[in-house]
Write a structure and sequence with these properties.
This protein has 305 residues and is α/β, with parallel strands linked by helices. The chain folds into three domains: 84 residues, Arc Repressor Mutant, subunit A; 104 residues, Periplasmic binding protein-like II (D-Maltodextrin-Binding Protein, domain 2, 3-Layer(aba) Sandwich); 110 residues, 3-Layer(aba) Sandwich (D-Maltodextrin-Binding Protein, domain 2), CATH 3.40.190.10. The protein is 43% helix and 21% strand. Strands 3, 4, 5, 6, 9, 10 and 11 form a seven-stranded mixed beta sheet that branches. Strands 1-2 form a two-stranded antiparallel ribbon.
Length: 305
């Protein structure tokens, strides 16, 4: 059905006069009358009661008029919506993130993106890096904030942009911290906690972070005793709070407050953990392109510092 016929119907309904409606539509009356009859025939109902002196809507016409107006309004909105989608100002962005990003760079990225693109709806999912890569390759998310490295089998099909680098710090119980040094900013020698069980991610889920932590112990000539494994940073910190051991975590985890947990820097030059954005190289929507631009700007600023 042509939208043109529906517009004719609304105009005649508003004017209740074929001559005035024809003038408003910049056409003559006979073609307008023929168009309305064609619309009635296609619908199988009469929309107007016509006499020599008046035109009135039938009950069906009265009931149909609000729906036709709504349909035309939706049709009129298609062009600006399509243009907004093409500019990345509307649509959906499906973004996954590692739990560490939630306490560092993610909130700032979301604030800036929301301010610049308020018409875009965000779908956020917390997931480990390995899960994100599989979801990304399968096309179920648009991009992810991950801790590298990327699996070699997917490296060619994905783009990766480093955003932030931060040192690892040690999370320990308040009692352990007080026994070592009551100064909140004092650095901790890993040898002082060599006997404490280590709470850590399983290697299969976060090989990059796992190897970095184990390498930190190895560089100090230590072999850690793994006490517990957990797949989320919140759980790791909670286990530290419960006295289950110590953990090496990114510095941004200081924003995650838990009763009985203290974060201290490591003595000497500790390892640096990186977080970056990954997406499918061959599939960048306008919405994703806008997010990538924001990430690039923030990454450049971080490098400049």
């Amino acid at each position: 059905m042509e939208l043109r016929l529906l517009r004719y119907f609304v105009t005649v309904a508003e004017e209740m006069h074929f001559g005035r409606a024809a003038a408003r539509l910049a056409m003559t009356q006979p073609p307008l009358s023929q168009a309305i009859r064609a619309l009635e025939e296609s619908l199988g109902v009469a929309l107007f009661v016509r006499t020599k002196r008046s035109v009135e809507l039938t009950p069906v016409g009265k009931d149909l008029l609000p729906d036709v107006r709504r349909l035309l309004a939706q049709a009129d909105a298609l062009r600006p919506l399509a243009q907004s989608l093409a500019r990345g100002e509307a649509g959906v962005l499906s973004l996954a993130f590692v739990s560490t990003a939630d306490y560092g760079l993610l909130p700032a990225l979301l604030r800036e993106f929301g301010a610049r693109y308020p018409g875009v709806r965000l779908q956020l999912t917390e997931a480990t890096s390995d899960v994100q890569i599989e979801e990304l390759v399968a096309g179920r998310i648009d991009a992810g904030l991950v801790i590298p490295p990327l699996p070699p089998r997917h490296a060619m099909s994905l783009e990766y942009l480093p955003i932030a680098r931060e040192p690892l710090v040690i999370a320990m119980s308040a009692d352990q911290a007080a026994a070592l040094n009551p100064d909140e900013d004092s650095a901790v020698d890993l040898h002082e906690l060599a006997s404490a069980p280590l709470v850590i991610f399983p290697r299969r889920l976060a090989p990059g972070l796992y190897d970095m932590i184990m390498g930190c112990y190895g560089a100090a000539g230590l072999t850690p005793r793994i006490g517990q494994e957990a797949i989320q940073m919140q759980t790791i910190v909670s286990l530290v709070s419960a006295g289950m051991g110590v953990a090496l975590v990114p510095q941004s985890l200081r924003h995650l407050r838990r009763t009985g947990v203290v974060y201290r820097p490591l003595l000497g030059a500790g390892p640096i953990v990186e977080t970056g954005l990954v997406w499918r190289a061959a599939e960048v929507s306008p919405v994703l392109a806008g997010f990538i631009d924001i990430v690039r700007s923030r990454a450049a600023a971080a490098i400049a510092l």
